[in-house]
Fold this sequence. Notes:
The chain has helices at 3-36, 39-46, 54-79. The chain is mainly alpha-helical.
Amino acid sequence: MDAGxxxxxxxxxxxxxxxxxxxxxAGVATVVFFIFVDPLVLRDITFPHMEISRLGGxxxxxxxxxxxTASSSLFTRILLIPPSQFNRx
Length: 89
């Protein structure tokens, strides 16, 4: 295995470490949110002129939660980068 393979593998590992926990958290957040909120009522309040089904509302919300939790995981990854990697010359 050469250095290029190791770098590609580490990027895949980092990407997986960001996306998998955020996927799980988005699923939990979607379930908890829609226990209390009906997507059709939410649609009528926010975008009454759009035809969004209940399943479409669930899907849109899931991807919004996933984007929010993935950005949180990415920010955590950025904070964990050692300062020595920023100070290279």
